[in-house]
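Final report, results section. Input specification for complex C-07:
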Amino acid sequence: MATEYSFPDSAAKSAAGAKAAPAEFQTETMSLSMGPSHPSTHGVLRLQMELDGEILTKADPVIGYLHRGDEKIAENMTYNQFVPYTDRLDYLAPLANNMAYAIAVERLAGLKVPPRCEAIRVLTAEMARISSHLMGLGAFALDVGAWSVLLYCLEEREKLYKLFEELTGARFTTSYTRIGGVTRDIPDGWLGRVNTFCDQFLPILEEMLQLLTRNKIFMDRTVGIGVIPKDVALAYGLTGPNLRGSGVALDLRKDKPYSGYEQWEFDVPVGTKGDCYDRYLVRGEEMRQSVRIIRQVAAKMPDGPWYAVDAKRIFAPPKDKVLSSMEELIQNFMIVTEGPQIPAGEVYFEAENPKGILGFFIVSKGGGVPYRLKIRSPSFCNLSILQKMCVGCLISDVVAILGSLDFVMGECDR
Amino acid sequence: MSADAVIALKAKFPQATDRASADHPAVNVPLADLVAALRYLRDEWAFDLLMDVTAIDWAEGASPRFTVVYHLLSSTRAGSYVRVAAPCAGTEAKPTAPSVVDVWPGANWHERECYDLMGVTFEGHPDLRRILMWDGYPYHPLRKEFPLAGIETDLPVADIAEATGTRVIAAPMAGGPFVASPGEVNLTEAEPRAKDESWADRTARPDQTPLRQMKD
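Structure output:
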């Protein structure tokens, strides 16, 4: 099977044509460094480019500016202590990261959390998906010249952050899950406020998407730009909206449901061409589908405990019992000092996060500390295709491509 | 589905053995069969997505010290995962494994990361450079003997280092790492700075602080 792929592109052809020109007309290439602090590289990505006029002849992404050694840190702390570090992976959707990490450890422990806990996690993960896609959409539109969409997006995202703050106590770094449950139950009336948000959000979402979907400037900048064929997307391990934009209907929420996703009805949007415009359309539709999931979960929120009550060596008991009962006090002390007790083994769990598939590979030798924890981050894999796909593009298209890939460097560099 | 794939794989590669796993079917293959086995899984069993390439360091003196681990996912027969592991060849200082960039181009960055952080050399990789740490960094930080605080090294840019005299220093651990049961690791040995609380020592009397002098 051939593994060397080429991106058919008119700009590439003209670049090849320029090379065939006689020696006296040969141009010199210019090397240009874009980033690590550049508004359209969304964080600290640096692209080391070689330009022939306006056409890229080489692009080498330089990453690692935000490397904090999360995997090393994880080997030196207990499972619960690592939850705040997962916030800082994809910091636009911390609730989804929290959930993925908690489920990975629970799989290793063979622990089943109650339905209410699963539903809360699904609800918060879908809200995180909307807030992440809002930021991705706003920034993408801004990069290709549509200012106003970002302002709509930030306003809606702020409403979501108010809800997150009420639920978790923090707007950004939520650290909401614990191994075997969540930090607290949903407050009174919160589900109603979530429904109110959904009701007013849908018309605004339509308005936002109308600003772009048939916008001549937006379409000129995105249709047919940055095409990723299906086989290339698979070969480079792209996931999430970037893979679905290329026409592969892989969504782990449907294909390998976790946390009770099989109960909720939703559709998986896929693109046809795999260009920047398709990726935009997929994200827009995903937000509508997330609202659909949120409404179902809010309507059918199960009652019962919101943490694994029987997991005495994993989930710390409620505070009032810790202060009044000796047994619970000892339990709490053991979990805080020694960490949740997880059996030895290897587990690899992947969740469908807003940016793509986030995976945790955990090797445990027993006890409260992982022996090795590897984070498979979607942005890392999604960016690895840049080296290939940017060659032959115009430099202005690179901005559109980066915006449409919607990556987060905190997750890429870990 | 993936369990069938593992059974078929073991029939085709007789040296492959089952690997203990808490979730997905997993298989150990000898390093010599690794690329052929992965290619077989991709071509015959539709495991077309290489999700992850990583290595596990089984601590100094273990044999084999490093194991490379691959996770495959099928996009058509969705929800099927398989884990393939192989012990690395080579020495402890320079373990080696074959590169699978020819099979999945997306393995390129994964293998660079694994080389960068673990020091596993992937033979046949077209461009094996560091990816997260800077070029010329002397250590592989995810190895078990590397301390959490880091090790003091030179600045990557020589002229700035010369002009300013600064170096990349180890992190002041400030009494940490704050973990009570570090597993098998002896923290005092692994982290010589762990109990070093000299950062909190006050050698100068409060009335001799620079701020006070400025006020005077």
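The two ends of chain B are 79 Å apart (CA to CA). Chain B has a mean pLDDT of 79. This concludes the modelling results for the funded period.
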